[in-house]
Amino acid sequence: MKISIIVPAFNEEKLIERSLQSIRSAATAFFQAGWEYEIIVCDNNSSDRTGEIARAQGARVCFEPVNQISRARNAGAAGAEGEWLVFIDADSFPSAQLFAETVAEIQSGRCVGGGATVELDQSVGCAVGAICAWNCLSRWQRWMAGSFIFCEARAFRELGGFSRELFVAEEIDFSKRLNRMARSRGQQVMILHRHPLKTSARKIHLYSFGEYILFLLRSFFGLGRTFKNREACAPWYDGRR
Fold first, then answer.
1. What value, to the nearest 5°, has the Cα angle with vertex 213 and ends 210 and 219?
2. What is the pLDDT of residues 186-215, one digit of tens each?
3. Three-class DSSP category at 137
4. In whole angstroms, what is the distance from residue 197 CA to residue 117 CA?
């Protein structure tokens, strides 16, 4: 078995070294199962040293010129050699315990893919409720957080990967399609929760409460059209780091 770990990265020179070191440390869980792994970083048209740092950390780096999370993940997957794909955001820090849980689910044969609940790497009071609400919704609907997704490579390609129409919420769209596939196969999409993925709290500090409310209002009244407009999805694409 070989696992391909795919890291989409846009201007992540501040955090990608720490993220890749966490990934490599956590990947001991794959070695313990007798599996191989590779790390692929997709440099999504960064203007900083993201690609250089990733190479220095031993990752294989590919390039996607169109600045879009979906395209970056798809580009990384296109060159992947593994039977299973694991997508991890460049500001997230998985543990060996989370990867061990992933191994157990893959070995069980019960699932075609899955995700994990998340927690912030810093305690930020105003975000606790939102994270808790997301984790509950994620487990109830079996929606995968984009910061951690694992999926059988054959299933990923059969579904056509992530939607290139969406600049955000592409993981929700993919989750819905993967859930339908799982039901047709008599399998499941699993949301792991015993060892949440730790992810950076930086967006809580970089963007005001008002900016998030404005984005949510635009999304609600725009009936999702905002998700297809890169300029309207500033927290993901304006390069603020």
1. 145
2. 999 999 999 999 999 888 777 776 777 777
3. helix
4. 6
